[in-house]
Amino acid sequence: MALLALDKVAEAEDAASRGLQLEPKNKALEQVASKIAERKAVLEKIAAKKKAEEERSQKEKMILSTALRARQIRTRTTNQPPDMEDAKVHLAPDPLSPESTLVFPAVFLYPMDAQSDFVKKFSEMDTIADHLSYIFPLPWDSKQEYTLGSVDCYVETVSGGLIKAGKKVPLLKILSGGKVEVVDGLVRINVVPTAKAGKWIEEMKARKGS
Q1: Residue 126: how many other CB atoms lie within 10 Å
Q2: Which residues of the chain form beta strands (DSSP E)?
Q3: Which strand (E) or helix (H) includes residue 22?
């Protein structure tokens, strides 16, 4: 009973079994053996469920990795990834099918105004315009500098440079090819008013040079 209370089921089962070998008709031992068997069944069920979940998780990761490689999308993980709660890169609608659509968490950065917007699900088939169309107008944009027609969008390259991203181009086309990488599972898109883009690019170059 003490072993069972400590959840040492294997030891408890062994003790009860040895006791019943000595006293096969011992009612107290029979009752304890029954309780041990019930607890053992519960633990086996929990272990089986956990194993199945772990196997499914590993399979999902493998298929996701295969899907990213097939699309030539580079990824990298740092030592301090951002906390995105349950948002993550995944395949939808079926995470176990490589033919499903890749979905990314994304952040629109407005570097000229130190603001940002987080998009939990940005499909590889979506365009930047698809999301900016419902994000704009920005509540803090008193000068009305941010409209679909008056901004340029940029993503950083692996080498630290910048690529101008077409607002009506699917995300897949922007990310594939190996020039851009998804860091910590988050797509980062810089949104800059066209009139200020030249200044911002020069500032980025100067910062990189220093």
Answers
A1: 18
A2: 74-76, 90-92, 101-110, 115-123, 151-156, 162-165, 181-183, 187-193
A3: helix 9-22
In the numeric block, the tokens 């088939």 are attached to 125
Residue 166 DSSP code:
P
Per-position pLDDT tens, the chain of length 210: 999 999 999 999 999 999 999 999 999 999 999 999 999 999 999 999 999 999 999 999 999 999 999 999 999 999 999 999 999 999 999 999 988 999 999 999 999 999 999 999 999 999 999 999 999 999 999 999 999 999 999 999 998 899 999 999 999 999 999 899 999 999 999 999 999 999 999 998 888 776
182, exposed or middle or buried, with CB in 10 Å at 0-12, 13-18, 19+?
A: buried
Angle at 31 between CA 26 and CA 37, to 5 degrees: 120
Cβ-in-10-Å burial (0-12, 13-18, 19+) of 103 comes to buried
Q: Which residue has tokens 């030539």?
A: 72
Query: Are 155 and 189 in contact, with CB atoms under 8 Å apart?
Result: yes
